[in-house]
Design goal:
Order of helices and strands: HHHHHHHH
Radius of gyration: 14 Å
Distance between the termini: 25 Å
Structural class: mainly alpha
Number of strands: 0
Number of domains: 1
Low-confidence stretches: 110-119
Oligomer: single chain
Strand content: under 5%
Length: 128
Amino acid sequence: MLVRLLAKQRGAAGAALSDEEIAIGSGIPLARIQTISRMESWDTITLGELRAFLKACHFNPLDSADRNRLNAYRRKGPKFIYLKRSPHWNDTFLPLIRQYHEFSTRNEDIKGEGRLRSPDQALEAGSS
């Protein structure tokens, strides 16, 4: 889920990628992109789908810069301010952030690690 939430266009401004853009970039059908985006585990994804999805999201797990960005979001409690500017905020990103928060809260309770902003905290941080 977090890889999907961090998917941005290349460049300094880096607008959030839509599900449609990821589907086109990956060659994976839109409905499957939406399913993969919401999965809590990628155990059932083929290696080919995983590679195509990650490439379309501009995330390379072998690149330390990408891993550091992902881990920084986990440590600091993501604000997702750039997602609020997307026309897909209400229908795609806010529900996905809520799901990510619920998933992370469950894992945090089990592992006792990480800081995560609730969707309401992310909203408040974006409006200040």
